[in-house]
Amino acid sequence: MSILETTLKAKDLFSGFELCRLQEEETAKLADRLEKKKITIAVIGQFKRGKTTLINTILGRPILPVGIVPITAAITRIEYAEPEGAAEGTTEGAAEEAARDDARDIATVYFRNGLCEEVPAADLHMYISEQENHDNERDVAEVELLTDAEFLKDGLTLVDTPGVGSVHENNSKSAVDFAKESDGVVFMLSVDSPLNQIEVDFLRKVRRFAGKFYFAVNKIDRVDEDELAEYLEYCTALISNIMELEEEDAKALKLIPVSAKKNIGVNVLTEMIRQDLVERGAEIMERSVGLKLLEILSSTRRQIASYREVLKMAPNVFNRRFQEMKQLMEGQRQDLENLEDRQYLRAAVNEEKAFLTRQVRELFGIEYYYGVDRDEAAELLDREEYRAELTKVYDELESTINSIFMYKEENAYAVARRIEDLNILMQQMRKLERQIEREV
Ligand SMILES: Nc1nc2c(ncn2[C@@H]2O[C@H](COP(=O)(O)OP(=O)(O)O)[C@@H](O)[C@H]2O)c(=O)[nH]1
Ligand SMILES: [Mg+2]
């Protein structure tokens, strides 16, 4: 069975189980990436190692703001787009060309509620810096930048990430998540600080997940040759140890010394990546999708385990939580009765869904997942439309909760059947897992 078939099979399994909507969506995305052969490489490392500087150098222009403290979990995804007016003459001078460059670097900021906003890349600092968007009060989910850099032309996506071990990691996506989501990782070190514990811990956590690692050592313009040699020797030994490389792989491990700022050695890195993509792009992708599938399967296992906990909950505990949920929903419906007569953003429906997800998690420990619809048009609803949308959300959640927990038809037989279904699902997942493990 090909990895694509395995992915589709997993998606099929999940689609029969209402608590696996997130996993179903994730596997659908994986299948899509496989089919479109879109490879993602994330640049990861601690704050101030020079990740953003490196990306700017690779892009050939200083598009992204450097030296800022990025906000929680706001990554920047950079993809290729044809230059606008590419067919026009090239008679303009350097100044005009630079001005045109700046004007065409438009980024899209995606907010957590699904809204998005186009902003000039020069203004990105307002959204991704900690100083100007403290604690991510603007609720930025991620930024997407389209640019015509040659390096991205074959469908490669580069991702700039916030620092490893950032203070906000606990309540948001972490560098570990970004590594898991990408096919390759450029891990960035810098000569002015030896590998520290945070970096070591990070590498230990992700070594199994990323399809392919590149280790870059930045800021070599700051040291002389001897110091660099010493640093490289020390870090190479340490990294092959942390990554638990076999002897042969350890011998082949080459850290790539660069100066992102002075554009030294960067082409060695980009050549290496390009070469890998040409020669083994499909293989890298398949391996990384296989690893991600395993990860999704294990999150499904956790979800099922939490659900079993709910099924086994003592009746009085369960009833209390169930009543709490009912009261919460009644309260929400009551609020709908008293809605002000004005216009409402459709995106506010997403915010309500996120709120409900948190409530279900707190009360029952399970993830009730809603997909967030992207709302590029910032659509407005009048009071009645908004009320109807929310009513639909409440009705759906209530009916799902009723059926998931079988509160109404609760009887030993139904619960036993349910547990039997889950056991079958678990068995099928184990079979898939073994299959993937053989393949990757
Ligand atoms: N000397 C030197 N400084 C660099 C180099 N690369 C980045 N920097 C500086 O290091 C600081 C942090 O860079 P940045 O790209 O924002 O780091 P990030 O937090 O990892 O994205 C900035 O002041 C950069 O100018 C380099 O190759 N050499
Ligand atoms: Mg940065």
What does this structure look like?
The chain has helices spanning 3-15, 21-36, 51-59, 94-104, 125-128, 175-181, 197-206, 225-242, 247-252, 266-312, 315-337, 347-364, 383-405, 412-439, and strands at 39-45, 75-80, 106-111, 116-120, 140-147, 156-160, 184-190, 212-218, 256-257, 344-345, 380-381. It is of the alpha/beta class and 440 residues long. It has two domains: 38-264, Rossmann fold; 299-439, no CATH class. Strands 4-3-5-2-6-1-7-8-9 form a nine-stranded mixed β-sheet, sandwiched between helices. Strands 10-11 form a two-stranded antiparallel ribbon. Strand 7, helix 7 and strand 8 form a beta-alpha-beta unit. Magnesium ion (MG) is lined by residues 51-52, 70, 160. Magnesium ion binds next to helix 3.
Layout of SSEs?
Elements (H helix, E strand, L loop, with lengths): L2 H13 L5 H16 L2 E7 L5 H9 L15 E6 L13 H11 L1 E6 L4 E5 L4 H4 L11 E8 L8 E5 L14 H7 L2 E7 L6 H10 L5 E7 L6 H18 L4 H6 L3 E2 L8 H47 L2 H23 L6 E2 L1 H18 L15 E2 L1 H23 L6 H28 L1
Parallel strand pairs: 1-6, 1-7, 2-5, 7-8, 8-9
Antiparallel strand pairs: 2-6, 3-4, 3-5, 10-11
Throw out a few tags for this protein:
440 residues; binds guanosine-5'-diphosphate; alpha/beta; 2 domains; Rossmann fold; two-stranded antiparallel ribbon; nine-stranded mixed β-sheet; binds magnesium ion
Question: In brief, what are we looking at here?
Answer:
By secondary structure, the chain is of the alpha/beta class.
Summarize the biggest pleated sheet: 9 strands, mixed
Name the beta content range.
5-15%
Number of helices: 14
Shape: globular
CATH class of the largest domain: Alpha Beta
Number of discrete domains: 2
Global mean pLDDT: 88
Number of strands: 11
Rounded to an integer in angstroms, the radius of gyration calculated over CA atoms is 25 Å
State the end-to-end distance.
12 Å
- List cofactors, ions and other ligands: guanosine-5'-diphosphate, magnesium ion
| Helical/strand content category | alpha/beta
Name the CATH superfamily classification of the largest domain: P-loop containing nucleotide triphosphate hydrolases
Give unreliable regions as ranges: none
